[in-house]
């Protein structure tokens, strides 16, 4: 190693066109990108005992208590607990009786789109906002056709989707709006929690989300009739008279999962605050590095910061997103590139997607890198991650100066 290589802890291997930088591990053991949060201690065993003694493992008191607690927290009248967000979305589209096309983002997790296919609805992708990464209202308008039945928006990484603009579009064209709120349990628009918009919103409680039930989901709605249909839908469509209203599924949440989710609510506010603190520290430090930008957060929104990401501009930062990815992984810092590839470029969807291109989605997706964020992440870990990124930037820029033929 040269003196420079030694100082920054990186070894340089020159290849014909690019410089690959291999970082020395910054952490002894790989620092994970996520860690399940809000899990209870031994007090959970009391819940388990209660459930076992009651003999009621499903359709019981814990589910009802969790639904009531969620309704109070979110400020929404009807909450229907389900076995997952995916199932909740599929049941919601079914219960709404939609036919035709659904406009949705491609910059999302593919489960968002799968629920359309499960209902024989045609997914029509709309481009995203370059600063919030949520669906762009103008792009939604551009995709409306005579067959459009609904808009399925996503609160990306906890940043609220543009609900008032989508409401306006929906009213004008008589469409339903459904939200994939998997990331957004605790997000706010002004002082109001996400969960009361559109026809329904669907949250996730799988282990990478804000509230963890093991597996689980929650459908929230202001529509009491829809809520009753959804209660039937999660129970094979049966309302109790053994003559189903609709072809439902078993989409129920078990008592054990509900007990876990209920415990997770206790620490939620503190965890969201901590995540935002981490986000702010990342932005302070990484914001000084040329070529990195972040998901915008505006003053009247609160994000859960379910994820924290940077967008890498290769020309300014000095190396590509993928080089940064490899370098941080080499340094034992787990990072991810999502959502990449975007849904319209994944196998199932690229075969059916023959419509207009999604340039912003492609651009964001090719540049995005997600960094570790969870409430137990230490301040010192955040500093080390930022140091590693800064070192790679400085190194890439200085090695570029040494190779004038590669200047652009
Ligand atoms: C996790 C996730 C889902 C799926 O949630 P499950 O509860 O695992 O079914 C759906 N949409 C988005 C955006 C997600 O991140």
Summarize the structure in words.
With 408 residues, the chain is an alpha/beta fold. The protein folds into 2 domains: 3-34 and 268-402, Alpha-Beta Complex (Aspartate Aminotransferase, domain 1), CATH 3.90.1150; 42-264, 3-Layer(aba) Sandwich (Aspartate Aminotransferase, domain 2). Helices cover 39% and strands 16% of the residues. The protein has helices spanning 3-8, 43-54, 61-74, 85-95, 110-117, 137-143, 163-173, 224-233, 255-266, 268-286, 314-317, 321-330, 347-350, 359-367, 379-402, and strands at residues 10-14, 19-23, 78-82, 101-105, 122-126, 148-154, 176-180, 188-189, 192-193, 200-204, 217-221, 292-294, 301-302, 308-312, 368-371. The chain has a 7-stranded mixed β-sheet with strand order 3-11-10-7-6-4-5, with helices on both faces. Strands 9-8-13 form a 3-stranded antiparallel β-sheet, with no helix packed on it. Strands 12-14-15 form a 3-stranded antiparallel β-sheet. A hairpin with a 2-residue loop joins strand 8 and strand 9 (192-193). Helix 4 (85-95) packs parallel to helix 5, helix 4 packs across helix 8 and helix 10 runs parallel beside helix 15 (379-402). The two termini are 28 Å apart. Pyridoxal-5'-phosphate binds next to helix 4 and helix 5. Pyridoxal-5'-phosphate is lined by residues 84-86, 108-109, 111-112, 154, 180, 182-183, 204, 206, 217.
